[in-house]
Amino acid sequence: MDNQPTINSTGSAQPLPSFGGVGGGLVIFSAPSGSGKSTIVNWLMQEHPELRLYFSISCTSRPPRGTEQDGVEYFFLTPEEFRQKIEHDEFLEYEEVYEDRFYGTLKAQVERQLAQGQNVVFDVDVKGGVNIKRFYGERALSLFIQPPSIEELRRRLEGRGTDTPEAIEARLAKASYELTFAPQFDHIVVNDDLEQAKRETLALIKTFLSE
User: Fold this and answer.
1) What is the mean pLDDT of the chain?
2) Which of 99, 111, 117, 173 has the most C-beta neighbours closer than 10 Å?
């Protein structure tokens, strides 16, 4: 997906604010499945180009699909190459989803994107979000998108009609666990009303990138 980059604080007034400059910022999104995180992130990327947000380009050990290109959608590594980078502590965060199927974020790639003035967006699980925030500290804004309740999350998942009852129960159990990480994020955005959640998220990012 196309992306867009932080704030250049020159002190001069600009007719159209541009949230970009020398060196970018980092915005971390995490949420339980069904919270509406992807909807909010995609809206920000598509409707607010002035924020110049760009997804971090992750690594994976799976083969490319369809028209995917190395260095565009992902960096494609072999499981052996991935393990070598783990051993050399080259990842901000990584996960072995199942045997030999890795996903992860390279420190060097994030630094390259920051050096280009990009504001780098991370769409990661809660542990990955906490790890990235811990690594970058005040350079990163971490946002937890939270459903109003587990009951509402159940309603949303059932409404999708894509999961079996067993799969929904598994997702809800995982969501309950993930919700315990919320206090470790800079801000919690409760997605009770989607339009309000979009506005709140936008305001938080604009404030962060303007500092």
Assistant:
1) 88
2) 117
